[in-house]
Design a protein that fits this description.
It is built from eight helices and no strands. Helix 4 runs antiparallel to helix 5. It is globular and about 60 Å long.
C-alpha cells in the first residue's frame, strides 16, 4: 500500500477513535501529577500555585474560545463531533476557516495543553505535544483527502492559500453564517464541563496526597458543581423542549 493510502487509512481509523486520546492523556497526566505531588513538598494554596492554575485555565479557555467561535459560525453537518465517518455537507471557507483549515483541532490542542501544564512536568508537556501532532496529523490528512475528493478544485484553491494548523490572519474573511449561541450551548457544553471536572480531579489529587482529603475544598469544587448543573440543564432543555433548536444548525 502506498504511503498516501496508508496515511489515509490510519487517519480514518484514528478519526473514529479520537475520543480516546483525551483519556490516554488524562491517565498518564494523573500518574505524572500524582508522582510530582508525592515527591515534592508544595505549600497548598500558595500565591504562585493559584496564579499558575489560573494560567492553565486561561490556556484551556483559549482553546474553548476557538472551538466556540468555529462551531458558532458553521451550518449543520459540518465541524461536528461525529465519529462514524467524515461528514461535510458544505465546505467552510469563511470566518476562522479563512485563516486556518483545522481550527477545531487547534482549539483542542490548547484545551489539552492547559491540562498538560497542570502536571508541572516539562517533558510530559513536550511528549503530549508531539503525540498530539502525530495523532492528529493523520486525522487531518484523512479529512483533507475526503474534502479533496468531494469538492475538488474548490477545496484545492482554498487549501492552497489557507494554512493547515498555524493561522494566517492576513487571509481573514468575515463569516458568512451568523453566530449561534444555541448551537454552542448544545454542542460545546461537553468541553466546558470537561475542563472544570479535570481541574477538580487534579486539585483533589493534591488534597488527597497532602492531607488525605478526598475532595478538594477550593474554587475547583464550586466550578465542578456549577458545570454539572449547567450540563444537566442543557440536556434537559434539549430533551424536553425545542428552545435550543435551530433549523439548519
Amino acid at each position: 500500500m502506498a504511503l498516501q493510502e496508508e496515511l489515509e487509512k490510519q487517519g480514518n481509523f484514528l478519526f473514529k477513535y479520537r475520543s480516546l486520546l483525551p483519556l490516554i492523556i488524562l491517565f498518564i497526566g494523573i500518574i505524572v501529577y500524582t508522582k510530582y505531588q508525592i515527591d515534592t513538598f508544595v505549600i497548598k494554596e500558595s500565591i504562585f500555585q493559584n496564579i499558575f492554575e489560573f494560567i492553565c485555565l486561561f490556556v484551556c479557555f483559549i482553546g474553548l474560545a476557538i472551538r466556540v467561535y468555529t462551531v458558532g459560525h458553521t451550518p449543520k453537518n459540518t465541524s461536528g463531533r461525529n465519529t462514524e465517518s467524515q461528514i461535510a455537507d458544505e465546505l467552510n471557507t469563511s470566518g476562522i476557516y479563512s485563516i486556518v483549515r483545522h481550527p477545531l483541532y487547534l482549539g483542542n490542542y490548547f484545551m489539552w495543553l492547559g491540562i498538560a501544564m497542570l502536571t508541572l512536568n516539562f517533558w510530559f508537556i513536550i511528549a503530549f505535544s508531539l503525540f498530539y501532532w502525530i495523532y492528529y496529523e493523520r486525522i487531518m490528512f484523512a479529512e483533507e483527502q475526503f474534502l479533496r475528493k468531494k469538492y475538488d478544485k474548490i477545496y484545492l484553491e482554498w487549501a492552497e492559500q489557507t494554512p493547515a494548523f498555524l493561522p494566517n490572519f492576513k487571509n481573514w474573511k468575515k463569516p458568512i453564517i451568523q453566530f449561534s449561541w444555541k448551537k454552542i450551548v448544545k454542542k460545546e457544553k461537553n468541553g466546558l464541563v470537561a475542563i472544570f471536572i479535570l481541574f477538580f480531579i487534579f486539585s483533589s489529587i493534591e488534597y488527597f496526597v497532602d492531607e488525605n482529603i478526598i475532595i478538594a475544598r477550593n474554587w475547583t469544587l464550586w466550578t465542578f458543581i456549577l458545570s454539572l448543573l449547567f450540563y444537566g440543564t442543557v440536556k434537559l432543555l434539549t430533551k424536553k423542549t425545542k428552545y435550543l433548536h435551530e433549523d439548519g444548525r
